[in-house]
Design a protein that fits this description.
Structural class: mainly alpha
Strand content: under 5%
Shape: globular
Number of helices: 10
Low-confidence stretches: none
Radius of gyration: 16 Å
Helix content: 55-70%
Number of strands: 0
Length: about 180
């Protein structure tokens, strides 16, 4: 999996807030992971309809609140979620675009779209963290959306995720944790 530069729109957005390099690198990695996952899913299940633009926007802005709540770059916390939503709304983004700042840390909530779940997964798997319940939920979604057997999806999806997890050490080192 290769690291892909953030879009000019997102780079400009982060620049406005003088975002720390650690945050920029984190968002770059999560965005790159999301892009890789979407490409792999589209290759494996061409009939799976995903909003790629939405996923990439969510992946590249999900932690934007940490540009202001900088202590959460180094320790756990949820203040950045509502702050990120507020930031994006103030900049003219709508609720649908801004929601990833809230949903990325709350994947257990019902009613989330597969796009939200992929952003949540990307935020975890890039560093090799596996969350079985989240992965199973996405597997279910793919199975239902593509009318494909759950176990068939599960086996193929597992291979995609294993390959991503294997490269986590390099990405962690690149981010500078």
């Amino acid at each position: 999996m290769k690291i892909v530069e953030l879009s000019k729109e997102i780079r400009n957005l982060l620049e406005q807030f003088d975002a720390p390099q650690r945050l920029i690198k984190h968002l770059t990695i999560v965005n790159s992971t999301a892009l890789h996952i979407v490409e792999q899913l589209n290759t494996e299940w061409p009939n799976l309809e995903l909003n790629k633009k939405e996923i990439l926007f969510g992946a590249s802005t999900h932690d934007i609140g940490k540009a202001v709540i900088t202590d959460e770059l180094y320790k756990k916390g949820k203040k950045h979620e509502s702050k990120g939503f507020e930031i994006l709304k103030e900049l003219g983004y709508n609720d649908e675009e801004s929601r990833f700042t809230i949903t990325h840390g709350n994947w257990e909530n019902q009613g989330l779209k597969i796009e939200d779940l992929i952003v949540c997964l990307s935020d975890k798997i890039w560093k090799g963290k596996r969350v079985n319940e989240l992965e199973e939920r996405i597997t279910n979604e793919i199975s239902e959306l593509t009318k494909t057997d759950f176990w068939d999806v599960s086996m193929k999806f597992e291979l995609i995720l294993e390959k991503i997890a294997i490269g986590s050490d390099d990405r962690i080192a690149w981010q500078g944790i």
